[in-house]
Design a protein that fits this description.
The complex is a heterodimer of chains A (about 60) and B (about 350). By secondary structure, chain A is largely without helices or strands. Chain A is about 10% helix and about 10% strand. Chain A has a domain of about 45 residues. Chain A is flat and about 25 Å long. Chain B has about 350 residues and is an alpha/beta fold. In chain B, the strands form two sheets. Chain B has an eleven-stranded mixed beta sheet. In chain B, helix 4 links the parallel strand 3 and strand 4. In chain B, helix 2 runs parallel beside helix 3. The chains are: A little secondary structure (about 60), B alpha/beta (about 350).
């Protein structure tokens, strides 16, 4: 599911094959379990203060 | 060659986590305003009982695996259908309370119907964040953002805002102050806002250029070029010394809700979409929800929105609609019928989904 990208600059981040991001019939992301998430996101977990997430549909970059 | 940029790993992990679910809900696509720069079609009708039931059931189904649920109400003008906000919001609040899930709700509204009584009920259901737009001092605002009847709207919105300021309700309101090439009306509004709300930390301001995103009046009004907007934002912010300007330092590499797999838009007819700014774009129809809360998703339609994850490309993740190919999408016009075979795993008994 993951593939190393060597041309991504200094931090050498890992990409995800977007074709393999699948959702189940409740909107859960299939396959990307905790272990995989940790791997692709560099070991970071969602922060405790996830209340700060703003969806804000009209605040997107297109409107700026 | 453009500079390579990526969102932070934390933002990426949040966007990809199934412990988070963000639903952008359109209880109605009608609006009581006719803003001259609006890109929406104001399709008549409200969210059906089946779609309301489906959303409630979906929330219930996800309670075991969620840590965080966000409900973002959008439209049209969502407060025209306030009863639907109350029904789903209060249901979600009970579910989340019982299961230890964090709930946060927000409402993008024109503010005309945002009376303290409505706010009070929403706040009680943990809907505490509001986005209200104003487009200049009274005269200009009334010309740019009138009611369907043509009457002005500024006085009523201002009255609601000042009544809310005078209440003890626990909310935040981000006032979106829109500006065009003539910034004098927005300068006047900034001074008024600073005077009226400057000592109340519940109010913040976001300074936004008016953009031409399509719609009935597209091409008939002037806009500030994006590259000129930052300087104007800084100038206007200087007129707001006592109010926090929330977009003065915009996030460098945001991940748009359209690119976040754990986010989806549910429209009045139960269709699932990705981008709130291109509601009638055929690339935007990725599935539907049935009355039992099951999502019928077309992965072929869905995956192009996630292309940015291949390399964590900051530009693609910030606005995926610009990179989703047009030729990859079905022939059905936005006003036509989406063949049911496009909706993989469709559970609805109907054979077509009407794309009204």
């Amino acid at each position: 599911m993951t593939n190393q990208k060597s041309d991504q600059g200094k931090d050498n981040k890992v990409g995800i094959d977007s074709d393999k991001i699948e959702l189940d019939d409740a909107g859960r992301i299939k396959e990307l379990n905790d272990e995989q998430l940790e791997k692709v996101a560099g070991g970071m977990r969602p922060r405790g203060d996830i209340c700060r997430i703003q969806t804000d549909p009209k605040g997107c970059s297109m409107n700026m | 060659m453009s500079k390579l940029t990526s969102p932070s790993r934390t933002d990426l992990s949040e966007a990809l986590s199934s412990k988070i679910l963000e639903l952008i809900l359109l209880p109605t696509e009608e609006c009581n305003f006719r803003c001259i720069y609006c890109y929406e079609d104001h399709v008549p009708g409200r969210m059906s009982n089946a779609t309301v039931a489906g959303i409630k059931r979906l929330i219930e189904r996800r309670m075991d695996d969620l840590q965080f649920l966000r409900l973002s109400w959008f439209g049209g003008e969502p407060l025209i259908a306030a009863d639907i906000l109350f029904e789903i919001g209060e249901f979600a609040n009970k579910q989340c309370d019982a299961r230890g899930v964090i709930l946060a709700g927000d409402v993008t509204t024109n503010g005309f119907m945002l009376a303290p009584a409505t706010m009070s009920r929403l706040v009680a259901a943990k809907h505490q964040q509001f986005f209200v737009s104003l487009a200049g001092a009274r005269e200009v605002h009334d010309r740019l953002r009138p009611l369907v009847s043509g009457k002005g709207t500024f006085d009523r919105i201002w009255r609601n805002l000042t009544e809310l300021r005078d209440s003890s309700l626990d909310f935040t309101i981000d006032l979106r102050l829109h500006f065009g090439p003539d910034i004098i009306p927005c300068e006047a509004l900034c001074r008024e806002v600073n005077d009226a709300f400057g000592d109340d930390g519940r109010f913040t301001v976001s300074l936004q250029r008016i953009a031409d995103l399509g719609g009935a009046n597209t091409g008939t009004f002037d806009t500030v070029a994006p590259e000129d907007a930052r300087a104007i934002v800084w100038h206007l912010a200087s007129l707001l010394p006592d109010v926090q300007v929330s977009n003065l330092y915009p996030k460098k590499h945001p991940i748009c809700c359209a690119a976040r797999p754990n986010n989806m838009i549910i429209r009045t007819d139960g269709r699932l979409s990705r981008c709130a700014c291109q509601l009638n774009d055929r690339r935007n129809f990725v599935g539907s929800i049935d009355a039992d809360g099951h999502l019928a998703l077309d992965q072929k339609q869905l995956n192009p929105w996630f292309k940015g994850y291949n390399s964590f490309d900051g530009n693609m993740l910030a606005c995926p609609v610009n990179t989703v190919p047009r030729e990859a999408w079905p022939e059905a016009a936005p006003t036509g019928l989406i063949p049911v075979e496009r909706l993989v795993g469709q559970r609805s008994t109907s054979t077509v989904v009407r794309a009204s």
